[in-house]
Amino acid sequence: MKQRCYYPGSASFKNYGARGVTVCAQWESFERFLKDMGERPAGTTLERIRNEEGYHKDNCRWATKREQDFNKRNTVVFEGKTVAQWAAELGATESAIRQRIRAYGRVHLLNTN
User: Fold this and answer.
1) Which of 16, 53, 84, 85 is most buried as measured by Cβ atoms within 10 A of its Cβ?
2) At what angle do helices 94-104 and 83-90 cross, to 10 degrees?
3) What is the pTM of this model?
């Protein structure tokens, strides 16, 4: 989290610190971070809920990779669902869902038999 936000040498800096994403002053203390967030549950990493905001107690949660895949800046939402959610619901690939949206202007259900 801190490297992404404060160290230009970090591979992720361009997507975080260079965009103005910061860490709240309280979280400069690991003890305070731990008090606010608790121990990391297995299989999760820290996620910002609202990508336009920085890291602070009200904007962070522990999330799985799958949950984080639904919450990216480039996530496409169509009729209230992300492409990934449509794909999971319909048993299709995300690529197929994007193609259907481009071709039909909607999530067109194709007979796959």
Assistant:
1) 16
2) 110
3) 0.65
